[in-house]
Write a structure and sequence with these properties.
The chain is mostly helical. It has helices at 33-42, 51-61, 77-85, 96-103, 108-116, 125-139, 148-169; strands at residues 16-19, 28-31. α5 (108-116) packs across α7 (148-169) and α6 runs antiparallel to α7.
Length: 171
């Protein structure tokens, strides 16, 4: 099925899509090659906008016209993710699990994990969580201009935390 050019008084085949409106909608019109060239030559998205409106549009375009929040804001995605990461909704890491860790004989890797996080051997889960959150805030590379030293330190802390998490799961 062939489309007819939507330019007035043109009966050529419309092979090219042109936006029907400036609102970024999916509405378009079909134009022939001759008229699409004319359309493109005369197209000015910002026509009828003030300089202030154009600048606001361009600034908004940097974030794909989506609202942004400061990192510390309550509804920031990463803030929500962080708060949920340490939330124990299924009570996997109940306080009583730390008793089992104290009774259990710790291997050298277990002891290293406690040392890396600067915790007492056999610390309970809530103490591990609090310390991890504190250390992440302290050593996060974004707080230190992306320093490789802090990135490596944070990796060690995260690995130690993951190891201690596994200790708490396996009773």
């Amino acid at each position: 099925m062939k489309n007819i050019c939507e330019w007035s008084n043109c009966n050529n085949e419309g092979k090219f899509k042109a936006p029907a409106e400036k609102d970024n909608s999916k509405n378009f019109k079909w134009l022939c090659e001759e008229h699409i060239k004319l359309f493109n030559k005369n197209w000015n998205y910002f026509e009828g906008m003030s300089q202030d409106q154009i600048e606001k549009f361009l600034k908004s375009d940097l974030t794909w016209h989506r609202p942004t929040q400061k990192f510390g804001s309550v509804d920031n995605y990463f803030n929500i993710l962080w708060n949920n990461a340490l939330d124990d909704k299924f009570n996997i890491f109940k306080e009583d699990s730390s008793v089992n860790v104290k009774k259990r004989k710790l291997c050298e890797k277990d002891k290293d994990a406690f040392r890396i996080m600067d915790l007492e051997l056999g610390a309970d889960w809530s103490a591990i969580q609090k310390k991890f959150k504190t250390l992440v805030k302290k050593f996060h590379p974004d707080k230190h201009s992306g320093s490789k030293k802090y990135e490596d330190k944070l990796k060690k802390i995260t690995l130690a935390y993951s190891h201690l998490k596994m200790i708490m799961i396996t009773k």
